[in-house]
Specification:
Length: 541
């Protein structure tokens, strides 16, 4: 049976989770069950966060942070000290083990321990299960077949959970966690039992605006640029949130660069516009974002710097814009950063919004569903479908935007989603390769491109002037949901998927039809004055 339960060391205990014997055992020390962190995280509760760099375990509640040092039986909930009658976290040969009783405090699971051999039956799934008594004494076998080894002798009337009913044999589990097969004729009447657990799931609250958010990003690269805010806003209509690019991660210690201005904030407040300061990780290329986020001390220092700036400059919100993260390097540290930042924002009445790419497999670790638990708003960057260095195409075709919203809605409630749209267009230039650039071998390949491709991001006015100057007439692309134009100048072919009132209206319809929280635009200064008339038809601002 020790082999059946994957037991090797004397202190091993088998983990039988939801009718499955896990290959990796736990530890049974001083009467306490310990489960390795990976199993806890992947099977029970992924909100537990282990910082292997600083040997600290964290668990984020809706309104507090739980902190546990390795090897201790004490822990902090916020600033309050609490204790357990067992060691909570154990490090054993580079494997972190977490006490299952502690996990159970914060997780909708139960467990029972059985001996001979040591095993614990863990339940994480609740609802209806089929059960039946053994009709008479019989044997539970490893596999379906009379020659298969016996794993347990069953008593008449012993309760079994039915896992799979075959033609001749039924797969079942006993109450003490033995899984095997018995002949169908020994299975009594099957009844449905409802499993439930007296556990209260945490309730998350959010700051929620009672108006349609009409937000615009304002790119600010120097402190002096703040003085132009009146000019920047003078022809806009309906804006109720502005996000200036004021803060960015500036070193590996968690310090931020600060371009903020209290005069700017005061002017916006006088005009009933909230200011959500943007915090980025893109400006200083020398900074290792992963190093900052994966060390709790620097990550929390960064959080404190952000909150300090929000208080100092009377900000209404923070707009977090961390991009180009590497999932292997960052792991869960980015979402833990959002959790910790959200607690401090909530304590100070500061809105937290988080910018996100449209969902894809390689950005799944951004964990939008968990973001929505802690952040107030999740912003979809519904642009950069094609970008500098990519193939040519639209920066935000209607299919790209529609799919991005639909996929985000699978993880985030509509009333927490802000759709980001572009005020900019890319003008793509196909410059024929010169004769001395030609590679005859490459030219023979099917995917050979006989030109060099470059692009330029420009605002709406610039696009119109460029098209007029070159006599280009746009045509509507139903597939892209926007106008398209191309022209040739000095041997170079230019292709333009145009962002204008017509394309933006399509995107605004997506916002409206999905009842999203609002819309945002990158960036102020790239728009035409007339575009605001289109926008306010949908925001009612």
């Amino acid at each position: 049976m020790t082999e059946y339960y994957h037991l090797q060391a004397d202190d091993d205990i088998s983990l039988v989770v939801d009718h499955e014997v896990l290959e990796t055992p736990g530890k049974y020390i001083d009467g306490e069950v310990y489960v390795d962190y990976e199993t806890v995280h992947d099977r029970f509760n992924d909100r537990f966060y282990w910082d292997a760099n600083e040997n600290v375990l964290l668990y984020t509640l809706p309104d507090n942070l739980v902190t546990v040092a390795a090897g201790s039986n004490t822990y902090q909930v916020g600033k309050e000290n609490q204790s357990a009658d067992y060691t909570i976290v154990r490090n054993d040969s580079n494997t972190m083990y977490l006490a299952l009783d502690f996990v159970e405090q914060y997780t909708n699971i139960t467990h029972e321990v059985y001996e001979g051999p040591n095993r614990t039956v863990i339940n994480t799934v609740w609802g209806d299960v089929d059960t039946a008594p053994a009709k008479k004494a019989t044997q539970l076998r490893l596999k379906g077949g009379i020659k298969s080894p016996i794993v347990k002798d069953l008593e008449k009337g012993e309760t079994l959970t039915i896992l799979d009913a075959g033609d001749s044999w039924t797969k079942a589990m006993t109450e003490d966690g033995v899984i095997g097969y018995l002949k169908n004729k020994f299975v009594g009447k099957v009844t449905t039992e409802t499993l439930n657990n007296d556990f209260t799931e945490p309730e998350f609250t959010h700051i929620s605006k009672d108006f349609t958010i009409e937000m615009a990003w304002h790119q600010v690269t120097t402190k002096d640029a703040n003085s132009t805010i009146a000019t920047v806003l003078q022809n806009t209509k309906g804006i109720n949130v502005i996000a200036p690019t004021w803060f960015y991660l500036n070193d590996n210690n968690g310090n931020i660069a600060n371009l903020a201005s209290l005069d700017y904030v005061n002017y916006c407040h006088q005009n009933n516009i909230e200011v959500w300061g943007l915090v980025s990780n893109l400006e200083n290329k020398e900074v290792d974002t992963a190093a900052v986020l994966t060390h709790t001390s620097t990550r929390q220092y960064l959080v404190n710097q952000i909150i300090s700036a929000a208080i100092q400059y009377d900000l209404d919100g923070i707009n977090l814009d961390f991009e180009s993260l590497n999932s292997e390097a960052v792991g869960d540290s980015y979402i833990q950063f959002i959790r910790e930042l959200s607690l401090k924002c909530a304590n100070n009445g500061v809105v937290l919004s988080v910018d996100n790419y449209v969902p894809s497999a390689y950005t799944a670790f951004y964990d939008r569903e968990e973001q929505a638990n802690f952040a107030d708003y999740v912003v979809i960057m519904g642009y950069d479908e094609h970008y500098a260095g990519s193939d040519e195409g639209s920066v935000a075709s209607i299919g790209f935007v529609t799919n991005g919203v639909a996929d985000t809605l699978k993880e985030v409630p509509a009333d927490q989603i802000i759709l980001g749209c572009p005020f900019y267009t890319r003008i793509w230039a196909e410059t024929p390769k010169a004769d001395d650039e030609e590679d005859t071998t490459a030219a023979a390949a099917e995917d050979y491109v006989p030109y060099d491709l470059t692009s330029e991001a420009v605002g709406m006015d610039t696009v119109q002037k460029r098209l007029e100057l070159n006599g280009a007439t746009p045509t509507w692309s139903e597939e892209d949901g926007q106008n398209y134009a191309e022209y040739v100048n000095d041997g170079v072919t230019y292709k333009v998927w145009i962002e204008d009132a017509a394309s933006l209206e399509k995107k605004l319809e997506v916002m409206k039809s999905n009842k999203l929280a609002g819309i945002s635009f990158w960036k102020l200064g790239f728009e035409t004055d007339s575009i605001w008339d289109t926008i306010i038809k949908y925001t009612n601002n």
